[in-house]
Each structure stands twice: as structure tokens, then as C-alpha cells.
Amino acid sequence: MTTAAPLPAARPRALTFGNVWLSLVLLAVMLLYPFVFGKALNFGVATLIFAGFAMSWNILGGWAGQLSLGHAAFVGVGAYTLTLLATPERVPAFFGGPVAPWWGALIGMGLAALLAAVWGALTFRLRGSYFVLSTIAVALVLRLVAINSSWTGGAEGLFMPELPRLFGLDLFDRKVEYGLAFAFVALTLLVTHLLRRSRLGYALQAVREDEDGARALGIDPTRMKVLAFMLSAALTALGGSLYAIYLQAFEPHTLLELPLSVQIALMAIIGGRGSIQGPIIGALLLSVFGEVFRTVFASANLLIYGVLILVITLFAPDGIMGLFGRTGRKLGTAR
Amino acid sequence: MDQAAVTALLQTLVQGLLTGGLYALIGTGLSLIFGVMNIINFAHGDFLAIGMFITLALFRTFHLDPYLSLLVAAPAGFALGFVIQRLVLSRLGDRLNEGSILATLGLGLIISNTLLLTFGAQPQSINVPYATSTFQLGGVQVSIPLLIAGLGTVAAIVGLNLLLYRTELGRAIRATAQNPLGAELQGVKTGHIQAIVFGLGVAFAAIAGVLLMPLLYAFPTVGENYTTKAFIVTVLGGLGNLPGAVVGGLVLGVIESLGAFYISNNYRDAYGLIAFLLVLLLRPEGLFGRTVKRV
């Protein structure tokens, strides 16, 4: 694959600029948020983290077209790795004692990528529904391990220990967390933009649209999908580490169950799979709706997710971004 | 092995087979839907929850014996499935494969959250005198509600087979499963058949819910766990393979019981998942299937 451009890569260049501008506008809005809604920083941090999850999911789900309903596994890997490695009682002195959170986050990313590599290499041979089913099973197995192992705190979960300061900043300060969550979203957005113009990005779109055709062009579909999966998993785990700091205490139930996986996938899908900014818009929309409905329906706030996903699936299969016509349309939706 | 160990093993196997029968019932519904429509129903466990809550509501309101609720829950399940296929799934067109995953996920969320709004989050059970009664069979204790559930499962599966292989409708269903276009050309209204099949699948899940109610607590998200069980059963048996689903259900029940008894009860749910992953990786056509049905 020397000239890997088997897809409608020759889109008008102006479109790319449009996309970049939309990303910059979104980032600017996010930057202004704390100054306008300083009292609702909690909501802001959570929304940004979920936007980052959805962007990370989109690399596999949107670009490679592989529906994962197990991304909670990677959130869990990130959260547990950072927390366990930062807790002195959990890391024997033999191994050098607790690890600073940023190293913990990096190790978590590595572990998540490793898990994705093994899992992807094994399951991407299977087509269609089998991959989806396997993602659910892997996440559930991790959840069972987390519940039943004493090292992971069992069903009660873990408390975040004292953390060293990052450049003198207190990691438990919501403003600092907002900044980190913003950086996380900016990073996933940057990766997506780079991916769009990269060999991997083109190859992924080719595989998504026509796997056999892509193979005929010399693309190794399994390899491309595994790479996308690893990237997606590592970024999700990074967000998971951040999420753990934000939550300060968590249990397997919140971090490793199907609803979280579904929520992440839905944000990306509702916003627009395979589009660049769709996942951010989906995360924003669902967070706002979720928050509103939480006050009305209390714990039944996921009802709105159900209704939205049904409406979107039936009437706007390309998500919110798909509604905006050409500019937002799923890249290369050549049917 | 001494006498006590043999009795314990027999007890575990009986328990496993009876529970497995219920899994088979749930899995058969899912497999039927997959076999004919080529879609995976992610709301399957939530339809089971509907069966449970219908039983609960009828018991609370009219003191109706739980097993009589079958007369309401099975037709209600069928009607619900029929309508959902007509209103939602039939509109997905060529996006059926992925669209159906999302649509049924959405439906599942709507169902579980509606149940939550209606009945609250508190786990609820019904008090029937025979709920905890057992009888002895050569030293092995058999739970009566579990036995009734097992018999109900057999009856439902026999009934489905009679329908599929002895009636004109069954012929049409099998034709639709094998070759939708060919069936359509022979005058089979495949859209109608698919709606009937989805209705049957949902009815099976609802029946399983009724049969489970005397044994378990009902709560709005109870279905999640059973959706997973149904996936495991159908993958063990081979996606879309009906006899496979029955055997898969029994295998899952026995694996869980043996694992829970001889290894650790904490990992009860893990044994099935691991078997599921192994089969997925090593024999995606299922334990007994010959060819992989292209998805």
C-alpha cells in the first residue's frame, strides 16, 4: 500500500478547514466554561472526561467500524492501575513503593493497549456480531476479577490515596481536574485529526467500507483494526485514570459494567460515528439531557438514553453530525 | 468416591441441569430470532424482566398464582415483540445488522428504566408456599419450582418444534430463515414472518421470566444478567442453532453449578463467560455446529 487512498479521500480541502475550525470553536467553548459556570465544575469535568472516552471509542467504533460494548474494561484498567500503584499498602516496598499518578496513568495506558492487542488479534478474525459479544464478555470477566480479588478492594472498590502534586498543582482541586480533562479531550481530538490524514486513517476507512476490497489493495485489515483498537484502548485508559482521580473512590459496579460501555458508545454514535467532532457533541448532549432527567426521573435517567438511541438509529443513522449534511457527514459514507 | 461425595455430585448436576433448562429456554428465544432474522436481541433479558414483573403485578393485585400468569405474559410478550418488529426493526432496512444492536440496546434501556419508574429499584419477591419446597429423590433434593420451570421449558421447546416442523407457519419460518428472498418469491410474507418470530422470541423470554419469578427477586435491571446468559447459551450452541441452544443452556447450567460447588461460588458467573470466550475463539460455530453462519 504505497498510495493508500482507496476511499473518497479527495474531499474538498475547504472541508478540512471547516472541521478544524469547528474543533477550535468547541475547544474555545470548553476553555471558557469554567469562567462562566464556575459553580458547575463537577458537571464540566465529568462531561469532558466522557467526551474524551467517546472520542477514543470513535477511533475503533467510528473509524474502524468495529462496535465495542466493552470499553468500560479500559476505563477500569486505567482507573485501577493508577489507584493501585499510588496506594502504598498495595505496592510492597520491594517494588519501590507507590508510583506517581502520571507514571501510573502511562502504565495503565500500556496495559490497556496490551489487552487490546491480544484481544483484537484473537477476535478480529471473527466478523459481525461475534466481536461485539466478545467485548461484553471480556469486560464482564475483568469486573468479576475486580469484585473477587482482595488486591483490587473487592466489591467495595478503592479509595484514591494522597497524590503528589503535579507541577505544584493539587490534583484534587476541581479546577486542576478541569484543566486535565480539557487536555485529555484536546489530545483525543488532535489524535483524531491526525488520524484523518494518516495512512492508518485511510486504511481504517477502507477496511470499514469494504474489508475484502481493502485486502485486495494490500491492506492487512486485522493489523489495522488491532492498531486502532490499541490506540482507542490506551486513550480510554488515560481517561479512566483521570476519572478515578475525579471520583476519588470507585467500585467495580461503576467502572466495569455494561451500562458504562453502552454510555460511551452511545455518546459517539448519537453525535456521529466516524465524524471528527461528533463524539464531543454527543457527550455534551447526553450529559445535559442526563442531568436534566436526573432531576425529573431520579435514577431512571437512562430512559432518555434509550429513547435517544432509538430515535437516532431510526431517523438519523449518521448521528447529529450527519444531520448537518456534507460538512459533518461520516467520512466516506459511500453507500 | 464415597457415598456423600456422589450424592453431592448428583445434587450439583441436578441443580445445574434444572437451571440449565431455564437458560435453554432463554437462549432458544434468542437463537430463534438470530436464526431467522440474523440479529442479536440485546433487550432479551429485559423482556424476561417484563415477564417477571407481569407475574409480580398480577400476584400483588389479584393474588393470581404465578404460573397462571403465563396465560397473560406469553401473549403479552408475543404482542410486544410483534409490534416492536413492525415499528422499529422492520424500518432499519439494510442497516439491520448494526442498527438492530443499537435499537435493541435502546429498547432495553427504555424497558428497564420504565420498570424502575413503575416498580421502584427495591428487589421484590412473591410469597407462595411452594417457593422453597423440595422433594427427595434418592438423597438428592429437588426444588419444586425449579422442577416446574424445567418441565415448562421442555413443554415450550416441544411446542416450538411442533410449530416449526408440523405447521404451515413453521414451514414459512424455516423458509424465511434459509432464504428470505426465495421465500418471498414463493409467496411467503417474510416481513410478517419476522414479526411473528420476534414475537415468539420475546414470548419465550417472558415465559422464562414467569417461571423464574417464584425462585428469584425481581428488580428492574435483573434482565442484564440474563441477556449475557442468553448470549453465552447461543454462542455455546452456535448462533441460530436451536437444538444447540438447548444443549448450550444445559451445558452452561452444569458448568456454573460444578464450578460454584468445586471451585468457588464467587466466580459462578465467570465460568460461563470463560467457556463463552473459549468457544468464541476456538469454535465460533459453536460446540456442535458445523459451519459458521455468516453474520
Automatic annotation (TrEMBL), chain A:
GO terms for cellular component: plasma membrane. It holds the Pfam family BPD_transp_2. Keywords: Cell membrane, Membrane, Transmembrane, Transmembrane helix. It comes from the Bacteria. GO terms for molecular function: branched-chain amino acid transmembrane transporter activity. Coiled coil: none annotated. This is Branched-chain amino acid ABC transporter permease. The lineage of its organism: Bacteria, Thermotogati, Deinococcota, Deinococci, Deinococcales. It is found in: Cell membrane. PANTHER family: HIGH-AFFINITY BRANCHED-CHAIN AMINO ACID TRANSPORT PROTEIN BRAE (PTHR30482:SF10), HIGH-AFFINITY BRANCHED-CHAIN AMINO ACID TRANSPORT SYSTEM PERMEASE (PTHR30482). The chain crosses the membrane at residues 20-37, 43-60, 100-122, 129-151, 178-195, 226-246, 278-297, 303-325. It is a multi-pass membrane protein.
Automatic annotation (TrEMBL), chain B:
It is a multi-pass membrane protein. CDD domains: TM_PBP1_LivH_like. Coiled coil: none annotated. Keywords: Amino-acid transport, Cell membrane, Membrane, Transmembrane, Transmembrane helix, Transport. The keyword Transport applies. One of its GO terms (biological process) is amino acid transport. Its main location: membrane. GO terms for cellular component: plasma membrane. Signal peptide: none annotated. The chain crosses the membrane at residues 20-40, 47-64, 70-89, 101-122, 142-164, 195-219, 231-255. It is found in: Cell membrane. InterPro entries: ABC_transp_permease, BCAA_transport_permease. GO terms for molecular function: transmembrane transporter activity. Belongs to the binding-protein-dependent transport system permease family. LivHM subfamily. This is Branched-chain amino acid ABC transporter permease. It comes from Deinococcus metallilatus.
